[in-house]
Amino acid sequence: MSEYKSDLLRLLAERGHIHQLTDAEGLDKLACEGIVVAYNGYDATAPSLHIGNLASVMLLRRLQQAGHKPIALMGGGTTKVGDPSGKDESRKLLTQDAIASNIAGISQVFHRLLDFSDSPTGAVMVNNDEWLSTLGYIDLLRTVGPHFTVNRMLTFDSVKLRLEREQPLTFLEFNYMILQAYDFRELALRHGCRLQLGGSDQWGNIVNGIELTRRMNGIELFGLTTPLLTTADGAKMGKSVNGAVWLNEEMLPSYDFWQYWRNVDDRDVVRFLKLFTDLPLDEIARLEALQGSEINAAKVVLANEVTRLVRGEEAARAAETTAAATFAGGGLGQDLPTFEVGPDGIGIIDALIGLGFAASRGEAKRLIAGGGARLDGTAITDEAYHITLASGEAKLSSGKKKHGILRIA
User: Fold this and answer.
1) DSSP label at 201?
2) Candidate from 121-135, 170-184, 321-335 with smallest mean pLDDT
3) Does the annotation flag 39 for ligand binding?
4) What is the rounded distance in angstroms from the CA atom of residue 44 to the CA atom of residue 96?
5) Measured in whole angstroms, how far is the alpha carbon of residue 169 from the centre of its chain?
6) Is 182 annotated as a binding residue?
7) What average pLDDT does this structure show over 296-308?
8) Domains in the chain and their CATH numbers?
9) Is 176 labelled as part of a ligand binding site?
10) pLDDT per residue over 210-231, tens digit each?
11) Which sites bind L-tyrosine (predicted)?
12) Is the model's pTM score more than 0.90?
């Protein structure tokens, strides 16, 4: 559909959130008639979500902004199985305690981005372990099994791609799509949920849930996916050269989080402003019109707005202040990563590793040889260079964009 009647689908379309819809006309009509309850699920495989997950969390935020009710489904049960989508190897099986700890960590971002009030559109958080862990194996086979054929299950990307790469797919993982389909049915029966949201790689799993619920209960459900997010250079969102860009402060300092957005490719700025901020579209259009080096001002706005949403106002302000002091003023911003050294100083290689600028001595040596290591703005080309901190601290840089503070313990 080129023109939607509901505020929900218009909002999602104009900000670039829609990739696929199972029944655009039916969902548009449903959203015009009243409050739509929708969910997205998150397995607890780590203590934090990363920016690759942020697009789907923003889907829930947009849903609520348009006057509908979001469900954040914690995968306490499905994490015990492991989603094979996009993976060449089986996930490590986690203990119950580890899963509970991870859920406590990943739930933080939802409380920043969603309103969990008692209003009709107030968000709710649910754990699928509540029903999945009580399922009897024989009962599940008899109840759900007849609605799935192995022939069709083998056609889904999560299975097919693993087999095409000749990577093993365990029987445990093969069951994942059944459990996710069962989740949608349970949420429809328990919470009146009519819509599942997710990334484009979840399309097959979403369709399974729609079909299972229709066959078992005669309830019409809907699915909507957001585009698989890649940067302008083709890299998958969620990763940087230094690893995952985590949403939680405990996993990644706010300054580094801010810097990720400040350093995005020029071609990505407008798209990211639409997807990951609440800035009005006319303001985004104004920023889109900036030319040349002025685009850096739009990147600062992007970094501030995303950091404010995910980390809070204080974190965004501190990160911008630190960046200004570090880059414009040549000073030492207080939010820069810090590594404490003894009074006798430290070797340049150990300092680079200590600040996380290099993962190994070999990598540190290559950085030095390439002229990328700078101490207080001066290039250090001798890998045997020993740093002494006469003034108590110094700024060590890796290239033009990564900086840290060496400080006497």
Assistant:
1) G
2) 321-335
3) yes
4) 11
5) 25
6) no
7) 95
8) 7-226 (3.40.50.620), 253-328 (1.10.240.10), 338-408 (3.10.290.10)
9) yes
10) 999 999 999 999 999 999 888 8
11) 39, 176, 180
12) no
